[in-house]
Amino acid sequence: MTNGNSMVIVSKTEMQSTFERILLSNGLNEEKAKICADIFTTNSLDGIYTHGVNRFPRFIKYIKSGFVKIDAEPSLVSKFGGIEQWNGNIGPGPLNAIHATETAMKLANKHGIGCVGMSNTNHWMRGGTYGWQAAKAGFVFIGWTNTMINMPTWGATDAKLGNNPLVLALPFQNEAIVLDMAMSQFSFGAMEMAALKGEKLSVVGGYDRDGHLSNDPKAILESRRSMPVGYWKGAGLSLLLDILAVILSGGLSTHEISKEEAEYRVSQVFIAIDMSKLGNYSAISGAIENIINDYHQSNPINESTQITFPGERVLNTRNKNLLNGIPVLRSIWDEIIGFTNE
């Protein structure tokens, strides 16, 4: 007998076709449905289930509620040199983010560096998607988004900050080094996943309603008091990322987004750097190789610990899931399949 928290195995092909079919039935055209389905599937394939298969039902609900305008296209607001500001017009976040990344790369090709601020957009799902997109094309990438209020600043009990994910990426060999991190110790998607599975967090992740430090994801989600990564440092970085997102995009801040009915109309920044324009370009790949080789020689705390650079475990998970199928919580997959019967 199974329960809602048991796992089912879904192939990449089945997941992508299911997503695409549901998106088409909810009004997306063939091109948009295919791209969005591919993003949600790839995120899941890479082991980022919280912003892949687990997040798909919420994306559909946002479409149905009108928070995501499926026919909207981003529009240029202003530009100067290598900087452009765009309005996402509340369109699908992943599609707006792909457009912004492509635009930033085009600007970088021309100016060496390109910066795109995107206002009035939706959740980009996995920010690392756009880091991989740029890095695989040969660019350094820096990007971030603000969010609705979900984290207290250091020393406070009430939430005033978003956990404002930050992405840093660069090409490495045939793949990339990609850091994708929220400003909270654990992303809310990771805590929601742990709560669904009845698991505790590996380290303290925030406070419960009584103000006690906790590794219980359910208690932290209820209190809305997640722990800033690096304590006061993460809180400060969250604040600055929000301010810079507002300045560079001309969009809403975290506290303004939080007045809305749901988390949408967020502000995002996409920066691409064309490494081929640098004077030391010919030496860059060798320098990165030397740094990673030295990094891999770290002494692990025990024999079972593998020292990996940001993004390296993603490659291992991708290969494993391609071979064995993608593990999905049965309750999540049942909810998704339910959309096919509507």
UniProtKB/TrEMBL annotation:
The keyword Oxidoreductase applies. Its EC number is 1.1.1.130. It is an enzyme of class 1 (oxidoreductase). SUPFAM superfamilies: L-sulfolactate dehydrogenase-like. It comes from the Bacteria. Gene3D superfamilies: 1.10.1530.10, Hypothetical oxidoreductase yiak, domain 2 (3.30.1370.60). GO terms for molecular function: 3-dehydro-L-gulonate 2-dehydrogenase activity. Keywords: Oxidoreductase. NCBIfam families: PRK13260.1. PANTHER family: 2,3-DIKETO-L-GULONATE REDUCTASE (PTHR11091:SF3), OXIDOREDUCTASE-RELATED (PTHR11091). This is 2,3-diketo-L-gulonate reductase. It comes from Emticicia aquatica.
